[in-house]
Amino acid sequence: MSFDLHRPASVTEAIDLAQRFAPTARYVAGGTDTVIQINRKKIDPVHLIDVACLPGMNEITETADAFTLGALTRYRAIETHPAFRVNLRALQEAASVVGGHQVRNIATIGGNIVNASPAADFVPPLLALDASVDMAGPNGQRSSPLRNFIVGPRKTALLPAEIVTNIRFAKLPARSATAFLKEGRRRAMEISVVCVAACLTLEGSTSRCASVRLAIGAASPKAFRPEQAESYLLGQSASKEKFAEAGRLAAEASSPISDVRASAGYRRGLVAVMVERALETCLQRIREQDQ
Is 137 within 8 Å of 162 (Cβ atoms)? Predict the structure, then answer.
């Protein structure tokens, strides 16, 4: 393994380096995915552009109506951020199962998103929050909904020399909650067999579903939103029976594979059960807020 390492002082300098050394250059931040891919000979970069210390990209910022996560934000920062402890707990639940403590101290959310693994734990919570991705490149800045940014396994909508700078999502209204569930073959440091995120908002003082967003990982070529299941719940009274039907619809929308971790049929069954449980968890959390 031999490469030249570059440490730019700004995003502009990083983009210039990526252009100069294309197509043999690759951005690296925490490196927890890049090192594995190099060791497995899936990639062979001649130039690594270390963006881990670029200024202003490792901050969590909050405005009156939104949160912005710098692409270099570490998972440990997400896991411990006080603003996520009420109705954004899915973010902390997902961050807490990304690798071990050492990994969470160096791995970045931008790197995980760009890696575009179908089983990435942090992508479903962001999808359930309808997050957007900000990018910078030779032609300036642009944004894309996360659901369009990841286009397939290990494939994104990034153009040559572009770099992810931020992930943004709106704050949730009153009587909202989120939840994240992961199923693996062991309890820690394991790739998901299936993972599910849910975001539920109830209407006024009623139990009717005003907004439902679901996201499923490791059950399709990329993490996805089961739109039919979401639409089914809108206007319905939140109940175990309705949540079970939403789980069934989500399972129908999945297209899992069979591999060494689980069969396709087992994964599809997990989707149904985990969607129901994630929604029940959201409902319980809303009720706790109401007390």
Answer: yes
What are 114's two structure tokens?
A: 């760009």
- Residue 76: Cβ within 10 Å count: 18
Asked, as a colleague might, if the bond just before 8 is cis with ω within 30 of 0, I would say no
Task: Quickly count: other Cβ atoms within 10 Å of residue 147's Cβ.
Answer: 18
Domain finish residue from 141, 170, 199 = 170
Q: How many domains does the chain have?
A: 3
- Domain with residue 82: its CATH number is 3.30.465.10
Which residue carries 């007390």 as its tokens? 291
Taking the C-alpha atoms of residue 178 and residue 194, their distance in angstroms, rounded to an integer, is 17
Give the tokens for residue 270: 């997990």
d(CA 95, CA 48): 26
Q: Which two tokens stand for residue 195?
A: 């993972």
Residues of the domain holding 41: 4-48
Mean pLDDT by runs of 10 across the 291 residues of the chain is 89 97 91 79 86 93 97 96 96 92 89 92 97 98 98 95 98 98 77 96 96 97 98 97 98 96 96 98 96 85
Query: What residue has token string 């440091």?
Result: 189
pTM: 0.94
